[in-house]
UniProtKB/TrEMBL annotation:
GO molecular-function terms, A-Z: nucleic acid binding
Protein name (database record): Tc1-like transposase DDE domain-containing protein
Region feature Disordered, mapped onto this chain: 185-214
Higher taxonomy: Bacteria, Bacillati, Actinomycetota, Actinomycetes, Micromonosporales
Gene3D superfamilies in UniProt: Ribonuclease H-like superfamily/Ribonuclease H (3.30.420.10)
Biased composition (Basic and acidic residues): 192-206
InterPro entries listed in its UniProt record: Homeodomain-like_sf (IPR009057), RNaseH_sf (IPR036397), Tc1-like_DDE_dom (IPR038717), Transpos_IS630-like (IPR047655)
Domain Tc1-like transposase DDE: 174-316
Length: 360
């Protein structure tokens, strides 16, 4: 019995039943066992009764022959949602999910009847969820964190076709943010070059070096970019500033891409030019007058904005290893990249970079 409980592999159902029997053998009543096992007292009594009648055979689920159970799309989405949440949000005293704890919780919550650890691993991998090391994320102190996060994820579900929008909800979802500042400076990167050291060609030209930029008199630029999540199309405008007027100008451009009767949502962070304030309600007034919903990500949660992953790819393909002489040259290269990206959305390297950087 102890070997079954201590083992980290195998059926979660067997492990849970063995745990109930051990707790009962230690004198714990069914009500207390139910609290520890996240189940009902009646279920605990059934397990104990079956063990008294059938012994160890009752611990193992009696599956019949045939194909392995398949999980519906709602079940897989719920597994993904719970895996991306924190155990503390569900009242559990853990800082992170292990596969065993997650599988046990899914069974206890009734999401699935039974699932093995390896099966759960395969499902999460297919859904694009991996176990990652947290580096620089900040814990949001936004009092409306849960509501904002839930709204953004609901809009993403609409864009992905997982949820049918109800009457009055947006049918088009944009993920929008600014990228920059764009400076005229050498960017570190990689390139093909002749090798150095004792194997180098003595007659080759010196390897190019990054130039020094002690002064930068050309100013900066900012890229306003948006991703149409339903069509997977990216749009971008390079501007000198990123004030509220420039933000509204870009929003008007996004609004012009669809007929006025089509309700759309724009997901963006809570950067001050994006907000409606007591002194300036132009953003909210424009959104209300043009059938647009502005959905804000929580404070310190810009990772929830899907456009951020596109910026990672833009930096990799377009800016790394460059040294542009003018903003016109740099902006032209960015525009050509966006056009290439929209024509090659299935490029393996592009998809790999975006999927690795994408968190939401």
């Amino acid at each position: 019995m102890l070997r079954i409980v201590r083992r980290g592999t195998g059926s979660v159902v067997t492990w849970r039943r063995a745990q109930m029997i051990l707790l009962s053998a230690q004198g714990m009543d069914p009500v207390r066992i139910a609290e520890v096992s996240f189940t009902s007292p009646d279920r605990v009594r059934d397990v104990i009764h079956n063990f008294n009648a059938d012994g160890f055979d009752s611990l193992y689920p009696r599956y019949r022959g045939g194909r392995s159970p398949t999980f519906t799309l709602p079940q897989r989405r719920e597994m993904k949602k719970i895996a991306k949440s924190r155990p503390v949000e569900h009242g559990l005293p853990f800082s992170t999910w292990s596969l065993a704890k997650l599988a046990d919780f899914l069974v206890a919550e009734g999401v699935v009847d039974d699932i093995s650890i390896e099966g759960l691993r395969e499902i999460l991998r297919a859904e694009g969820v991996s176990f990652q090391r947290i580096k620089t994320w900040k814990h949001s102190r936004d009092p409306d964190y849960a509501a904002k996060k839930a709204r953004v994820e609901h809009l993403y579900a609409i864009a992905d076709g997982e949820v049918i929008p109800e009457p009055g909800e947006p049918s088009v979802v944009f993920s929008m943010d600014e990228f920059g500042p764009l400076n005229l400076q050498p960017h570190p990167g990689r390139q093909w070059a002749e090798r150095g050291g004792r194997h180098k060609d003595p007659d080759r030209d010196p390897r190019p070096r990054r130039r020094a930029t002690y002064t930068r008199p050309h100013g900066v630029r900012h890229l306003f970019a948006a991703l149409d999540l339903g069509r997977n199309v990216m749009y971008g405008h390079v501007k000198k500033r990123k004030k509220r007027a420039h933000f509204l100008e870009y929003c008007r451009y996004l609004r012009s891409l669809y007929p006025p009767h089509v309700r759309m949502a724009i997901v963006c962070d809570n950067y001050s030019p994006h907000l409606t304030t007591k002194t300036d309600a132009s953003v909210g007034d424009w959104a209300a007058a043009n059938n647009v919903e502005i959905a804000y990500t929580p404070t310190n949660s810009s990772w929830l904005n899907r456009i951020e992953a596109q910026f990672t790819a833009l930096r990799y393909f377009t800016l790394d290893g460059t040294d542009h002489s003018s903003h016109t040259e740099q902006a032209g290269m960015i525009r050509r990249y966006i056009a290439w990206r929209n024509r090659n959305t299935n490029n393996p390297r592009l998809r790999r970079i975006v999927e690795r950087a994408n968190v939401a």
